Amino acid sequence: MVDHNEKLLQELLKKPGNNVCADCGSEGPDWASYNLGIFICMRCASIHRGMGAHISKVKHLELDRWEDSQVQRMKEVGNIAAKNKYEERVPSCYRRPTKNDPQVLIEQWIRAKYEREEFCQPDRQSYLSGSMVGFLMKRGKEDSRYQLRKFVLNENEDTLKYHVKENKEPKGVLKLSELNVSFAPSKIGHMNSMQLTFMKDGSTRHIYVYHDDPEVINCWYTAIRCAKLHLLQVAFPSSPQSDLIMRLPKDFAREGWLWKTGPRPSDVHRRRWFTLDNRKLMYHDEPLDAYPKGEIFIGHESNGYQIKVSNTGNGCKEARFPFHLVTPDRTFCLAATTHEDRAGWLAVIQQALKRPLTPQDSTIEATLVRKRTTSNSISIFSGR
Questions:
Q1: I need a surface site. Which of 109, 119, 215, 328 has the fewest CB within 10 A?
Q2: What is the rounded CA–CA span in Å between residue 97 and residue 143?
Q3: d(Cα 109, Cα 118) in Å, to the nearest integer?
Q4: What is the rounded distance in angstroms from the CA atom of residue 64 to the CA atom of residue 85?
């Protein structure tokens, strides 16, 4: 038999805002922090418990026994009121996580709200200054070893630099305004890791970094986003803030293994790691390669770009689900191992085909076209 307090909690769940997790937005929360007065999901509840009972006291809505005073606290607060308090001053550049985001992002969002109270006291938001100096473990370009490197973020110079030796000239200078940054825990094999992607000499370059402290890696991630937003605000002063936020770093639309063959009938199928970054479809020999083996620009469907699906075999046992990516210059023959994987790739590519081109997209297209037209038979656009 359901007791009186459990009935009250179920009624409170029906109120606006309480039917989703207060931290990640997932539907149907079945846990709560009764001192904070919020309803949360199981994943976020485990993070709350990890902060300690002096920060958050967690109970299951049905499996735990509730005191009258605890239910009263839930009634007095609720998700909307708590949001107004703990998210009062979230910077526009800060990435608010959703249920499918990496653990480090969700955990640091929760700790920032309730443990550090960063959004109640803006002076604690160290990532807004436009500059940051610190050390990260960086993967070598030629090998898989990670070495400690000094990184320097400077918004005024539009740069992110890294140094092999602290007091020497930087080994690399990345242009902030052209930099994409994403969390990459599953790829790198470290929970607190990021992938930095940028253009170098007309080609895409990847850098992989991590830090043992999740707060530090999240602070770097947020500092880069905030610096980029400031640069966009200067470059496009009349653009709505919402439009500029849409141009901040995003996770890759999709990554994974596909089979690829060249344009000639005699070309064999080769397994490649594909990454879709906005409109750039890159393929690599391995997931952690420093450079892609090739890059395909996906333009708008009105300019001759399209997808064609084939349901017939193509001579490769593993590449059972083929499809063709048609560009004005060439048709790329690709294939997935499963029907579900192909459907996933078709969906994200189709979204790119239908999305209007931006001036930034046109610049990337011009760069890749210029690279292709000046390359020789051994270039990355040879189809190998």
A1: 328
A2: 33
A3: 10
A4: 27
Residue range 230-266, pLDDT digits in tens: 999 999 999 999 999 999 998 999 999 999 987 776 7
Q: What are phi and psi of 260, to 5 degrees?
A: -135, 140
The model's pTM is 0.90
Alpha-carbon dihedral sign for residues 142, 148, 149, 155: positive
- List b or e across 241-272, with b for residues whose CB sees 16 or more CB atoms inside 10 angstroms: eeebeebbbebbbbbeebbbbbeeeeeebbeb
Cα torsion 120, 235, 182, 257 to 10°: value is 150
Give the model confidence (pLDDT) of 73-113 as tens digits. Answer: 999 999 999 999 999 999 999 999 999 999 999 999 999 99
Tokens, residue 95? 């990435």
Report which residue type is found at 319: A
Containing 137, the helix (H) or strand (E) segment is strand 131-139
70: which 2 tokens?
């605890």
